[in-house]
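Q: Could you write out the predicted structure for this multi-component system? I'm mainly interested in how the pieces pack against one another.
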Amino acid sequence: MAVTLFIIRKLGGAIATMLTVSLLVFLALEVNVADVAVKVLGQFSTDAQRATWLAANGYNDPVVLRYLRWLGAFVTGDWGTSTYYRTEIASLIPGRLAASGILAGGALLVIIPVGLIAGVLAGMRPGSLLDRLVSLVSVLTTSIPDFASAVFLSAVFVFWLKWLPGASTMLSGFSISEIVLPVLVLALYSTGYLARVTRASMIDVMGTHYVRTARLKGASPTRIVLRHALRNALITPVTVIMLQFPWLLSGVIVVEVFYAYKGFGTLLYDAALNSDIYLVEACAMVSVLVVVATQILSDLAYSWLNPRVSLADAAMGRG
Amino acid sequence: MRKAILPYLANPVVVVGALLSFGWLFVAALAPWLAPYDPIKTILPLMQPGAANPAGGIFLLGTDMLGRDILSRLIYGARTVVVFATLATVTAYLVGVTLGLIAGYWRGRVDAVLSYLANVVLSFPVLVLYIVIIVVIGSSPFNIVLAVTFGSAPAIFRIVRGITMDVASRDYVAAAVTQGERAWRIMVFDVLPNATGPLAVDFCLRLGYTAITIGTLGFLGLGLPPPTPDWGTMVNEGRGMAIAFPHLVIFPCLAISSLMLGLSLLADGLREVSDAQGRRT
């Protein structure tokens, strides 16, 4: 019951956000009709051509009508035609999104175990050599921008050791060696960040009364960490993991462009460079949708780990 | 005053962070005196680091494909990043702090609308937001500042709003209200000073992220128009020849990473010291 209410409320919020985003995206990209004609027909089209095209495509109608028509088409899966790729956008995006999903999934496979383990080990003994090492490495990885880590890792593994290819075009089918560098670059920042958050959370929990009680009771350190501390120490990191998705989506653009990987990031990038406005609109909407969906999942995970926050409270906005 | 600064100087993290950050500030300020060559002048293309200039002197970090001295471009690039990142962060702060104070102090409908809009903007992945904005308004120094302001103001707004709501419920604010103080005076003189600690930490980090954003936009070819020396743009231009000439891309990457490292160490250290002070009092 509470779960259903919670999900309904969250979905309502998500739909409201998506509607506002759609309005913003539409206003930003399509309110200036003359601009749309130039972007779709190219700079060298004549005024007469533009006028004919605008009239034929209903661009002379009032803005409100155009927005509603655009929104209706969007919701029913008609995302228009890409002026750069010359194909239906709706058939273009799923494959590219899946390709980026592989990168993001691979990155999460690195981020979650490495970040959590490093963070827990460092937070168990603050001030120890291991803790200092983890802190130092995580400050470093969170300070290097994606494009710079791509350059550094490529310098080592491509130019110097010559172990890995420097491009991930996947021209001759899917290849594991081509995906290693993009995944590593993508994972680097978030791993360090997750380790920092987990460490801080672990230190907090290790200082609580119930952990002290467990220690006084004579429980072994392993038992204290595994049975008592871990579940509570993981609440914040799990939310942080879910909230890494928007960050990964940004990172995906840089990494895919650097390694010429054909995913969602390069799609949006090509769309932007070629003023392919319909494709930009669709990509923007899809990326916000991904973010909003992960936010709902993160709320669910949070309340599952932390029963003190009941879903009913969260649903009423009291959580 | 000296007592307030001393614990910061005793913290090694703060000192290293400040040295790195202020080092780049120093480089930016003194660029014309530090740079050995004109950053946009063609001399000799694709010289390796340390190669001698036939006209005298050496190219310490080599030259790029257009024959421009990389060290000089890095030094002037510091100027670009310092000026634009600071400008963009400060404008974002002006907007975020003002709206945050208003929403946190007045609450009600104003707060509901502003918070909702902040949420909407924050549900864009940052880079997607910047790319859409740059597609719409084009890439110019002013537009980049505008895009960053739009993108980071909501996060600042949230921090300030939270602190304001907390502080506004305290007795001394109620006292000020009873005294008939004007609302804006209360916000600026009673509420805002309480937010300086967290905001100082956030400012360092955000300044770094803005520098990274400007660099990333440059790397994507959507940044400041050439020939402005810009670290991200240098990486973008050198990318194609990086296998044969890694120096084209490695030095600008080291530059931006060291700047960001300085700022995040500074933020970490500031947080550590202010936490320790908070525990003592």
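A: Regarding packing and overall arrangement: Chain B has a mean pLDDT of 86.
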